[in-house]
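Page 42, continued from yesterday. The earlier attempt failed because a stray header line got pasted into the input along with the sequence. Redoing it now with the clean sequence only.
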Amino acid sequence: MSGSERQGGSEQRGGRDERTGRAEGRRAGGPRKAQEIFDATLDLLAAHGYEGLTIEGVAQRSGVNKTTIYRWWPSKGALLGAALIGARRLDFALPDTGSLQGDLVALLEAIVALLTAPPSSDIAVATLGAVTHSPELAVHVREFFADRLARELPVFERAVARGELAADADPTLLVDLLAGAAWFRLTLRQLPLDEAFVSRTVRTVLKGAATSDPR
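This time it went through. Structure tokens are written below.
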């Protein structure tokens, strides 16, 4: 995901990531050591959970004065929201396999890796667990998922252009069905998320489970 690690110079507002064109830092800029701040935030979240995450701890771990952090992000919920969107360690390559099914398999594989491979799995569990107790954090997590969906939209736009997907199909619903199946299976059923699960889930979402001639 986009970030704003700048070398030298004073803090600037309104900078943009050269790779994505999206605003760096807190949408309209960020401190010079934003990536260090984001990495420290996610490290502490993974190690201590949302309750153990503090701006003071982030300041100490990142080597950035806490007043600088508070200037940009007035609460730990706002800081975590920015870190989820801005941390490069959570970045991913948008798949372009030439088919909708291939692209969705690649997307679901990325989601499975996020949910099962530390430290991203610890970050995901801590964040999603805390959302139910923190309305403020929930707002920032919604921004994270909106950012993810905006970046995934080309997958569906290409599929519509190829005639693989109806023009009125709902990308949000399709992503929710895939990601929701992975999250439910992993956290509630405690079952493995193997390669067969990924391909079977994508096939079911796209083609359904009924026979072609139900009687």
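Notes: Strands lie at 12-13, 29-30.
Reminder to self: strip header lines before submitting.
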